[in-house]
Amino acid sequence: xxxxxxxxxxxxxxxxxxxxxxxxxxxxxxxxxxxxxxxxxxxxxxxxxxxxxxxxxxxxxxxxxxxxxxxxxxxxxxxxxxxxxxxxxxxxxxxxxxxxxxxxxxxxxxxxxxxxxxxxxxxxxxxxxxxxxxxxxxxxxxxxxxxxxxxxxxxxxxxxxxxxxxxxxxxxxxxxxxxxxxxxxxxxxxxxxxxxxxxxxxxxxxxxxxxxxxxxxxxxxxxxxxxxxxxxxxxxxxxxxxxxxxxxxxxxxxxxxxxxxxxxxxxxxxxxxxxxxxxxxxxxxxxxxxxxxxxxxxxxxxxxxxxxxxxxxxxxxxxxxxxxxxxxxxxxxxxxxxxxxxxxxxxxxxxxxxxxxxxxxxxxxxxxxxxxxxxxxxxxxxxxxxxxxxxxxxxxxxxxxxxxxxxxxxxxxxxxxxxxxxxxxxxxxxxxxxxxxxxxxxxxxxxxxxxxxxxxxxxxxxxxxxxxxxxxxxxxxxxxxxxxxxxxxxxxxxxxxxxxxxxxxxxxxxxxxxxxxxxxxxxxxxxxxxxxxxxxxxxxxxxxxxxxxxxxxxxxxxxxxxxxxxxxxxxxx
Length: 573
Known about the structure:
Blueprint: E1 8-11, H1 13-16, H2 35-44, E2 49-52, E3 56-58, E4 65-71, H3 78-90, E5 94-99, E6 103-104, H4 109-117, E7 146-147, E8 150-155, H5 161-178, E9 182-185, H6 193-206, E10 211-214, E11 232-233, H7 236-247, H8 251-263, E12 273-275, H9 284-287, H10 294-303, E13 307-311, H11 336-339, H12 342-345, H13 347-361, H14 364-367, E14 369-375, E15 379-385, E16 390-396, E17 402-406, E18 412-416, E19 421-425, E20 430-434, E21 438-444, H15 445-449, E22 461-462, H16 502-506, H17 517-521, H18 531-543, H19 550-558, H20 562-570
Parallel strand pairs: 1-2, 1-13, 2-5, 5-9, 9-10, 10-11, 12-13, 19-22
Antiparallel strand pairs: 3-4, 6-8, 7-8, 14-15, 15-16, 16-21, 17-20, 18-19, 18-21
Helix pairs in contact: 5-6, 7-8, 10-13, 18-20
């Protein structure tokens, strides 16, 4: 199935394209056409699928649907959406839409009829628990069930056969009109199960390999993911473990999460939709304490069981924190012109591109069984295994290089795809030296040579695996054996003016010679700062939390986007 090998790019179009917050329904603006510029970037990043939405006519943020058969006029018209999907398909990219079927907006035709005709409305049973003895803040003279306590979102009665048939017809329309490849079901954790079974029955016939993925926050995911309901759900459990496992230097949380997810179906696995952030949660770059942990976090996301996804803009490591009454900061306007060279200029963007292409080209990362090999709080090694090949993945959340070792590894020739090192495993034992806040992905050379996607050129160097005569190898205890040679000296070197400059403190180039870190520390007018001043301000914030190493400095220096740096420096508590 295509979705078993998918790498998703998630787009919230109303935000990314800068649509007005309120739809007046009077003007069609063809903003969706801007996405044509992004398709080349998406493909070059190694994404072969897009989840986009909400798309259809609504009054505000998109989840209060007014018309399920019409592209939101703030984004364009139906011809724009057809052209977008076709362009994606022509570039080998699948597309799934947001399906907001749990609730509608108050401008939906059936609810307008209910307001106009009250007890005599033929649509009164389309909505849940309509009570004509109640009232609400809109002074409708009746009350009804909603989603999340918001009367803006009117709960549909999915057990009503007319409602069910209406939505199934909408799905048929999306397939025939737009050639969509699947649906992400909004609020799937509160959808009626019989309704979801009807959707699955339709999915099995409406289009080959039509994919249903549901938004589920908590619970036993196997209730939703099975042969009669959905193909996949959002993996919020792993989402939480990925950032807190790094913030707390606790890989046991991540490994335990994977084991629990595997146990839900007796080890069969659920092929869940893995993500580090999305339009409802804070950006991963804002949630992790050490920005260098972006690297091991995404190595895990791309190599653990499941379908990886990246939320638009996070491939550039942009920031975004939730605000009290708004999610706007999570859904920013992005212009292609500002990021068109990022894959060449931004090391993290290039890193994600490599991971994406690796995921597409190395099939064992999609289909291989998972086996935990070695685990400590700060180091974690596991394998993905098929009948032919084994991949070895090891990550390190420590601020120092560390060793990790394990046994039971398939013998053979391996290549480490992030560095180009090679090794021969003989006797099933490996000892790896993992850089600080980083990881390694070792792929069997035979599988690497047969990969279906070309990877960037890498310089290969020979590394010998260390064999062992022991029959049972315990994980290496290396925490006290590695020096802190990568820590930056934050001593008292001063410049000619007697100022401890950023050049002296962090080893920066002469552009930073006039910047006094102490003075920067006392400023809060971030919007008025230069890019260089913002970078130093971020380093100062990091230094308060612990030693600043070379990788951390490089991560900051690679970010040359003023708005992103402003958001980043504000994210520190």
